[in-house]
C-alpha cells in the first residue's frame, strides 16, 4: 500500500448489509490508517447515561463553563478510554492533527480546557475506539463492509448524531438504497 492509499482523515460509513451488527449504520472518524493498522472513533451512536458531566465528575475536574453533552460510543476496543475529536484551533503535545477539519486528543488536558472555556471551538467526546490490525480494514473494505467518505467537518461537528450516516451519503452524492452488496464478474 502506498502512502496515497491511506485513508486517515476520512469518514468510514458502514455499508448496508455490514456483517458485524455492532457497526450497522455506523459512521467512524478514521484517524489513523497506515501499514500498522487503523484507528477510528465512532460518531453515530451515543452512550446511555454517560455525559460530559459524568466524565468530569469521575475525573475530579470542575465542570466550569462546559455544557453537559452526550458521550459517543467510540467503538468496542477499550471502552473506558476517552477521546476528543475537535477542531484544530486547539492543540497540546498529546493532540494529533488528522486533517484540516479535525484533530484527536486523548489526554485530560483537553477536558480541563473545555471545562475552563479555553478549549477548541468545536468538539465531541467518545469512549472507546474501533481498531484494525495491518491490512484488516483494507480487507473489510474489499468485502463491502465500509465506504471511505470525505472527512467533512460539517458532518462531524454540525450534523445531529442520528443524521450523520444519511447526511454523509448525501454529501457524497450517493443514495445508499441503490448500493448492492454483491459483486459480479464480467
TrEMBL record:
Q: What is the protein name for this chain?
A: UPF0301 protein GTZ99_00590
Where does the source fall among the domains of life?
A: Bacteria
Which Pfam family would be a valid example here? DUF179
Gene3D superfamilies, per this entry?
A: VC0467-like
**Organism in which the protein naturally occurs:** Novosphingobium ovatum
Family from the record: Belongs to the UPF0301 (AlgH) family.
